Amino acid sequence: MPDMLSWPMIIGLIIKQFWPVWAALAVTFVASIRFKRRLGLYGKLFDSPVGMMGFAIVMFWVFTAFFAPMIQTLDPLAQFGNAKNPLPGAPTPEGSPYGWFLLGGDHLARDVFSRMVAGARQVLIIAPAATTFAFLVGITLGLPAGYFGGKLDTGLSFAANLVLAFPVILLFYLLVTPEIRNTGIPVYLAAVLFIFPVIFFAVLLNGRYRTNPPRRNLYVGVTLVFGLWAYSGLAFNMDPLGVWGMEPNLLNVFVSVVFVNAPTVFRIVRGIVMDIKSRDYVAAGQTRGETPSYIMMWEILPNARGPLIVDFCLRIGYTTILLGTLGFFGLGVSPESPDWGSTINAGRKILSMVPHPAVVPALALMSLVLGLNLLADGLREESLKD
């Protein structure tokens, strides 16, 4: 039986386990700094110490999620022994794949370190993807609302304000309850919300290649084929090839994130468009006879990228906190999921006796959100210099 590890030994072994992350971070930073003058706003990020710090923290967790199977020491869902809440550095039972619980175990003798690593994958799959969908919905509706105004703007703004009138946490909580799922409302919302990315890219490509019909027809056709294929699987779980699909719990959470965030994105985009549409380059496009879709997608949207990129980073952090809150209330992806919110909830009841089952995922969640906020600050500083 291995001996109990001291904290210096624990820290050393943890650093060793993260070697793929350190290697990936080194390659990313060296390449990015070497070619930063050719990388636009991303390259300028490396002129900001705050932005670099935030980027390093975020990419640490991104690479942790990517290399999770290599970093985990034990199966995050498996129980190792009968002892409850083994301390950090405690030896695992004989025959286990790894000799120690590096950051201790939980009340079911599951490895806290491995669950923290696996939880990063859960968060970094759902939060960025759902936030991207929310942005595509908000941009697709916010561009015409701000550009055309009138009754279209009034109707869309009223719908957005109606959603925003509800307390966000309460609305989020209601949308993911099993009772709501049984009504089919998440599927109906998915049917509406998930079509917007297809519309966005179809309009984007149509505006870009409208003067070249063969290429336009090819690109828009491919977009519609793949987009509707993904749409049928994600919204209705009707992909005949089984490539696209979501489990009911994941669909609930995903749709809820998109539905709650899209109205705020809509209002931000609408406000930016109302300001930008009076600029000279927009008037020049109108004088050339450009279509409204081209002006919105290729004149206004690129010039709104700075605030939108900053808000995107902040919104991922906000979504990460929401996902953690859902997991804390037992409404996450699945009851046994190693997501950080569920793990914090499982460890909070014994926090006064053994803090590590709750503190470790809480610190992980805090560090990711901190990194996203610092990254957003750095991007904002650099975007203002454009």
Notable traits:
mainly alpha, two-stranded antiparallel ribbon, 2 strands, 72% helix, 1% strand
Strand order of the largest sheet: 1-2
Provide a count of the helices.
Answer: 18
What are the segments in which pLDDT stays under 50 over at least 5 consecutive residues? none
State the distance separating the first and last CA atoms: 61 Å
- Overall structural class, as computed from helix and strand content, comes to mainly alpha
Sheet bearing the most strands, described?
2 strands, antiparallel
Overall morphology: globular
Helices and strands in order, then pairings?
Elements: H1 7-17, H2 19-34, H3 40-44, H4 49-66, H5 68-71, E1 90-91, E2 100-101, H6 112-148, H7 150-164, H8 168-175, H9 178-183, H10 185-193, H11 196-208, H12 213-236, H13 248-276, H14 280-288, H15 292-303, H16 305-328, H17 340-348, H18 356-383
State the gist of this model.
This protein is mainly α and 386 residues long. It contains 18 helices and two strands. Helix 14 (280-288) runs antiparallel to helix 15.
Textual characterization of the structure:
By secondary structure, this protein is an all-alpha fold. 72% of the residues lie in helices and 1% in strands. It has a two-stranded antiparallel sheet. Strand 1 (90-91) and strand 2 (100-101) form a beta hairpin. Helix 16 (305-328) packs parallel to helix 17 (340-348). The longest helix has 37 residues, at 112-148. The chain is globular, with a radius of gyration of 23 Å. The mean pLDDT is 87.
